[in-house]
Amino acid sequence: MDLQAVAAIQAFAVKVLQVFAMLFAFGLVVLVLYVVYMYLSDVSQTKQAIRRNFPVLGRFRYQFEHLGEFFRQYFYSLDREEMPFNRAQRNWVYRAAKNVDSTVAFGSTRPLNQPGDIVFLNHPFPTLSKDAVPPREVTLGEGVARKPYTTRSIFNISGMSFGALSVPAVTALSKGAAKAGIWMNTGEGGLSSHHLSGGCDIVFQIGTAKYGVRDAEGNLSDEKLREVAALEQVKMFELKLSQGAKPGKGGILPGIKVTPEIAHVRGIPAGMDSISPNGHPEIRDVDGLLDMLNHIREVTGKPVGFKCVIGVSDWLHDLCEAIQRRGIDSAPDFINIDSADGGSGAAPQSLMDYMGLPLNRSLPLVVDLITQYGLRERIKIICAGKLLTPSMVAWALAMGADFVNCGRGFMFALGCIQAMQCNKNTCPTGVTTHNPDLQQGLDPMDKAERVYHYARNMEYEVGTIAHSCGVPEPRLLRRAHVEVISERGVPMPLNELVPEVKPKSVIASDRGVN
Amino acid sequence: MDGVTTLVGQGLYMALAAVAGLGIARLLKRDDTLGCLIAGVLAGILLPVFNYDTGLRAENIHQLVFFIILPVLIFQSAWKIDPDTLFRWLGPALLLAMVGVPICILITAALVYSGVHQPEGFPWLAALLTGSILAATDPVAIVSRLRQTGANNELLTLVEGESLFNDAVAILLFSFVLGIATHSAMEGAVATGESISGASGFTLYFAAVFFGGLAVGTICGLLTAIVILFLRSAGAALMVLVLAAFGSFYLAEHVVGVSGILSVMICAIVARACLREQQETYLAHAAPTWEWLGLLFHALIFVIMGLVISFDMFAQHWLAMIVAIVAAIGARGLAVFLVAPLARYVGPPITHSWRLILSWGGLRGVISAALVLSLPTELPYWSTVQAMVFGVVLFSLLVQGTTSTRLIRKMES
Predict the structure, then answer these.
(1) CA torsion sign, A471 to A476 to A480 to A483?
(2) How far apart are CA B258 and CA B271, in angstroms?
(3) DSSP-assigned states of every residue in B284-324
(4) In terms of pTM, does the model score above 0.90?
């Protein structure tokens, strides 16, 4: 072999080695200096006691605490122990949205002895496929609004504002909803071109700050309301009194998420926190509420209802009496009952965790109350609150709801992984961030398909439950089809806990006379 | 003994001129730099009257600039930048400096070379020297205006960070080109004695100088942080910081023989990032200290520039000055608009209005003036380069500085 070449290679190898040795030495020096720096920095700071008492080592606590979140989620959490939605629920939504096989094997992992859980009562002779019918049409505002709204859909997209959601997310929801034939609630952030782009039915929500339909002083502007109502796609108007995440507090959109476009849609300055008042200043009692609802219906000609979280219920009696006094036409066309456990929005923990009634109490309460006053046919009931699996939707229908709204289920369909950073503009899946880098992960066309599949599979599987219970369509489910597990771990009939009520005009006049 | 008193006297004369300059600026309601320039010119006129010698010679200006003035100016501007925001804009700022500056230098050099069109008296090397001197930008004026209009923090950090990296790269390349021009491997004032030849030799040398500077700076920064934390006193911390600024440069440049500018810059950034938690305790007085040090040297440079500037310069080189002004502004604009669209691949995107502010607001100021003052007079094209750079700096001061306020206001609305 050529000696010269060998020598050259050798020289080269020695050079490379020298460079690496130097790099290593440098790295070592820097490491040692860095550890010394960390030690001194830890003992001289006064904010964290652990770091002060255990310099350098104390830092691991914060690192591990941070890592622990991911370890728990990916390695240690069981299928059914995460909150707010466990892996079993999320996986069902993901599979439904991707339209892949959603069957499971080797028995239920759901413990069938937890108090409060529900089971459906199957029928010995289930509805055959040939006897099954699609859900019946329901008309809201029939004979009252100039343009009543008729729909077959059961499962719809709950109010999530443009601002809370990103542009691609709203676009995907709009397209998916149009394909599935369901409606989409705008949330309180006004109506943007992205909502309209897919061509779905729109329910316009009027929040406490009246974004999108406010004048310069922040009052409701009839002119703008008329403009919105002129759009064929806008089917109904919903007046928001309170929302599940924070009953008694207005919507909060952090300034970092108020981009120029969002500010324009809402009619507010860009970059500033967008904070809604905690209530409508012009509505102070049930008469004010009815006046407002009738005014909006008068201006828009479309069905109008309100959304709220139920807490105290006296005012509902007052409301029903006021309706009977004014005539049945003055009633809201629907009531949207929000469960108290919160949605995508940013909220103080005490309100999210402790304020308001959960749906399993408030839904039967309202349904029974309006039934007693004979308003059950006039006022449709919409409900929302963690109803993202077929069993929960079927339960709500059996309880007496006409429609179910769902927000976070559709967020999962959009690719949400429950990172719980909706309020920070750092959503890793692009659903609730306005950072273009993060948004680019969310392809509206692909996710629109997932939204469609999720809605369709949901309807299909709610239908399956109905058929197993022996009724031909989901809206025929009754409380008698459900049993709820008691504290002894034994199921007992639901209608023993919340019996079906009949309209009793006596009660109404009873309270009216005094 | 005599030497020391002369030195003190000379220093005081300059400092007095600087203070007078600040006074003139206050009276005229103009930038401090312009006031100092006028004061320098006046001081130059007064010199023959007193029959006084400032002791300023081209050869000691070079050392003064590199070992005293530049370390302070670079350390100060690196210290000002908020490390967290800088980290977010690191990609775009580095991109503009590492890619934008070489592009800017090449374009300026080409324009100047073809504009002057005297291959014997003004060779390519001279054009490249001019280009590298003019690539260093000075954001002080623009930053103070942005602060007045209450522009957002992100833009401020981008402007400051970009100009810091710009300066470092421009100074590095200036030293490198100067080394080639004077036929010595030369960084700052240090000649290694070895002559370097061949493209690979230059590349290797450049890489060693570059990465060596970064390494020395990192170690110096960590050491600074350690010593400050150990001493636990605000006064001592200031002492250590000032020592770090001069020391990291001296160590890198004179002892190790690598880039001192990069070393100072990295030292400041590392120390600042490491001492974030001590902002209110040991470093409570760091900001004003750097402010006055920076102001002093800033003023000094412009006083010296005023001393050097003469009417003959304009008479002889007016055409070259105009060429240089057009070249400098055109090259900066082109470089920014070529490179800025790539920013979104390495970090947050730079909007169109920000690009305008970056290119028109890229004033040539103290660093360019300092660099050109440090040019050795042995170079035959020395006076032409000096005239060109002075022309550009004057134009920046008088025209760009005043119009950029309007530009910023327009962008904001």
Answers:
(1) positive
(2) 20
(3) TTHHHHHHHHHHHHHHHHHHHHHHH--HHHHHHHHHHHHHH
(4) no
Joined together, the tokens standing for residue A51 give 């770091």
Q: How many residues does chain B have?
A: 413
Summarised one tens digit per residue, pLDDT across range A61-86 is 888 988 888 888 788 888 777 778 88
pLDDT band, residue B196 (cuts 50/70/90): low
Put simply, whether A62 touches B (Cβ < 8 Å) is no
What's the CA angle centered on B400, arms B396 and B406, to 5 degrees? 160
The interface predicted TM-score (ipTM) is 0.83
Report whether A275 contacts A250 (CB < 8 A). yes
Q: What is the per-residue pLDDT for B189?
A: 38
CB atoms within 10 A of CB B235: 10
- CA atoms of B241 and B238, how far apart (whole Å): 5
CB A93 within 8 A of CB A454: yes
User: What's the gap in Å between the CA of B253 and the closest CA on chain A?
Assistant: 18
Q: Radius of gyration of chain A from Cα atoms?
A: 28
Nearest neighbour of A37 by CB, restricted to B274, B281, B349: B274
**Which chain B residue lies closest to A435 (C-alpha atoms)?**
B348
pLDDT tens digits, B56-98: 766 677 788 888 888 999 999 899 888 888 888 888 889 988 8
Which of B215, B218, B277 shows the shortest C-beta gap to A41? Answer: B277
**Residue from B74, B75, B58, B125 nearest B377 by CA:** B58
Backbone angles phi, psi at A38, to 5 degrees: -60, -40
Q: Write the CA distances from B142 to A458, B139, B212, B358, B403, integer angstroms.
A: 59, 5, 32, 9, 10
Measured CA to CA in angstroms, residue A283 lies from A219, A220, A280, A292 at distances of 12, 12, 5, 8
Contact A414, A447 (CB under 8 A): yes
Residue B192, C-beta contacts closer than 8 angstroms, at least 6 positions apart: B184, B185, B186, B257
Name the 3-class secondary structure at A249.
coil
Which has the closest alpha carbon to A93: A155, A153, A170? A155
How far away is chain A from the Cα of B88, in angstroms, using its nearest Cα?
13
Q: Is B223 in the A-facing interface, judged by CB distances under 8 Å? A: yes
Token digits for B35?
């006031």
Q: What is the mean pLDDT of residues A305-321?
A: 92
Token pair for A493: 């009939």
Q: A226-267: per-residue pLDDT in tens?
A: 999 999 999 999 999 988 878 878 888 888 888 888 888 888
Taking residue B82's Cβ as centre, other Cβ atoms within 10 Å add up to 16
Torsion of CA A199, A203, A206, A210, to 10 degrees: 0
For helices B311-339 and B382-395, give the axis angle rounded to 10 degrees: 70
How far is residue B325's CA from residue A192's CA, in Å, rounded to a whole number?
48
The Cα–Cα gap between A340 and B288 comes to 53
Residue B49 token pair: 């009257």
Give the nearest partner residue to A36 out of B226, B232, B281, using CB atoms: B226
Q: Flag whether residue A9 sits within 8 Å of chain B, measured between CB atoms.
A: no
Task: Specify the pairing of strand A252-253 against strand A274-275.
Answer: antiparallel
